[in-house]
Amino acid sequence: xxxxxxxxxxxxxxxxxxxxxxESLNDLFSNYGTVNSCKIIMDRDTGRSKGYGFVEMDDADGxxxxxELNDYEFEGQTIVVKESKPKNDGYKKPFRSNNDRGYNNRY
Length: 107
Prior knowledge:
Layout: E1 8-14, H1 22-30, E2 35-42, E3 49-58, H2 59-69, E4 72-74, E5 77-83
Antiparallel strand pairs: 1-3, 1-5, 2-3, 4-5
């Protein structure tokens, strides 16, 4: 029995036209392989697009899509396409209160 491992790549897409729909972004990337998921990030207060989104594809197809679509003109905008990396690799900056800096420590 042969086991096939498929790795999923998360792709960051920036500088999208604010009118770009999930369907049109999905259609663009589906030219390079199967799109597992596609989303455009929306502002929670206004409900409008923030101009960027994420696409998930198989690793091999995603690499080709990144190479072909970075700096590609799409719906009147030159988009930026690159592999999405974790924001901070799990590191959180320690919280420091004003007292930690020596303020108001007169006893």
